[in-house]
Write a structure and sequence with these properties.
22% of the residues lie in helices and 49% in strands. The chain is an alpha+beta fold. Strands 3, 4, 5, 7 and 8 form a five-stranded antiparallel β-sheet that branches. Strands 10-17-16-12-14 form a five-stranded mixed β-sheet, with no helix packed on it. Strands 9-11-15-13 form a four-stranded antiparallel β-sheet, with no helix packed on it. The protein is elongated. The two termini are 30 Å apart.
Length: 287
Amino acid sequence: MYYYINNDPLFKQIPMIQNFWRMMVILFFAVHPCPLYSDVIDIQSQLTVNQSADQLTLALELSNKGSIRAIDVSVAIQFLETMQQSKIIDCFTSGQTKTIRMNVAVPEDKKGAFPLICEIQFHDDNLFPFFSLYCTNIYLRTRKFSETLTATIKDIYISDQQTVSVLVQNNESKDQNIIARIILPGALTCKNDSRNIVLMNAPLETVLFQIFKKDALPASHHRGYVLMNYIKNSIHHSIITPFSIHVDSNEMNGHLTKKYLLWGFTGLTLIWILIISIYSRVNARRP
């Protein structure tokens, strides 16, 4: 198309058309897709837990170390049967630091290790959701103890859905009844997130979880956890095993490619309409 337009008699006679057309062709081939998310929201957190006989006092310090603001920032806490949501911070600007405090009641009949799950949720100016997940054990009415169960999980890469394989090993000869549960950030989901396992004569067991992408952005990275809970000698045990989740970037590349092809096609169409319009006006003025 460029060859025929470049050799058209009208094109040669009107310098404005020549310069405009050539400039647009150069721009079309010179512009390359750039990252859709050029700015970064980097919210760092530090959790402090003060424990008494009947209550946990949580202080989560949040610092926005990124270059842009975060909006609608909130913290969700899950401990035992309790779930709490903090008040929403409407705007969390770059360089700002805030501390969110929450209290959680501790039942009198609980003894052992229990998982505390904390998730930070926020959005950017384009209303894209972001999640930061954290999980740790809280020891109630007992000292920290070693575990006889271990879990091995490989990091996974996901485009739409992926299987998480958990290898559970029992280092004791005693049978163990275990509840295995997967904990995911809000960007991902699992339809059946809990399994009952009985480790008998075989010391190894493989547990599979099928996870699906929900609101995860392409090329993003997340942290997930697998919890193994069981009772031993009337004491609750909790084993937390983290793993990394990497979301495929192909969707992002495809989105950008389609986006720029559409822009290029629209630009060429507008240019062609302009050329036809000028051509028609020139012909109308000819005797």
